[in-house]
Amino acid sequence: MSFPERLKAARLALGLTQEQLGFELEVTKSTISAWENGRDAPGFRLLPKLKVVLGVSLDHLICGDVAEGAPEPEAEYGAQVRNDAEAQLLKLYRRLPVKRREGLLAMID
Question: What pLDDT, on the 0 to 100 scale, is given for residue 80?
Answer without folding.
Answer: 65
